[in-house]
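During the no-cost extension, the postdoctoral fellow (Dr. R.K.) reprocessed legacy sequence entries with the updated structure-token encoder. One reprocessed record is reproduced below for audit purposes.
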Amino acid sequence: MPELAVPSATADRVVHADWLELQALSARDRNSSMQDFASALRSTGSSEELEDEGAAQEIDDRGGETTEPIAEAAFAEIEDRSTGCDGGYPFALGNDFLQLKGPGSGAVYVFLLLLSRFGKDAAPAGLNAPQLFEEVSAVALRSCLGGPRNRVQTYHFGFPRRVGPPGFQAAVGELCRRTGEGTESRARPTRKDQKDAALDLVAWRPFPDGRRAMVMAWGQCATGSNWDGKLSEMQPADWSAAWLRDRPVVLPLRTFFMPHCLIDEHWEEKALRGGVLFDRCRIAALARPLPAELRAQCLRFNRHVIAGIRE
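Re-encoded structure tokens follow.
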């Protein structure tokens, strides 16, 4: 079962903000506050680590001089998330607290938070969390390119594929057929051993004339803690050269999806490696409304994990 442990005082503000959100999800009053967090840090004694690392010297924390600034930084991160989610944030914010909104436990943001913190193995039996994440991400990518009203199309290329051919060669051929780019799969000695070659999502916005050279995005999804090592795996130019008979006239935009949040200081460096980043807040802002089936699966995942935290 998931466990909601108090993070170290030396952890970054993203980890601290996650704890505040998870605390609100698991608390009976569905509420969490800066004081809750500061008290938790003091009760575990983790704030003493700051002194051990030289981050604080000769500070008496009986009045919260060490822990309260940490809690304030975490709450500032939460305020940034609320803005970034553009209406998709499931918590209401007070001056120093957050409160889960009425239907918030089924929100996309909550699914992403729980997946980020507890991983794919926290899912209930029969639910493939990474695949669900890819499908939610596909909704966000489609919305980003203009959505259904602009005839934006998506293709879930990641393995295992729920729709379309399971084999790599046939899946590449289906991708070419749908988009009108690439002609067909290129023969390579290792083609039979491929699953998706790090390409999970494809979205494109066709023109009425049906000609090539359109706005297209290719995406990679990563749910685990090793996401950083995957940022540069999928390069459209290299992927096209390796697996397509003809390169797309205009190379697809490179995108990267993850259920995690990033510290602002790391954002540009990660984007240089991964392309257009879709983190937890961007996905939560764009993946609305979810199709009923996906919404039901997210709710099932959320309820299962939250129930485990509360036990």
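Residues 129-290 form a domain with the Trna Endonuclease; Chain: A, domain 1 fold (CATH 3.40.1350). Confidence is low (pLDDT under 50) at residues 53-63. The remaining legacy entries will be reprocessed before the final report is submitted.
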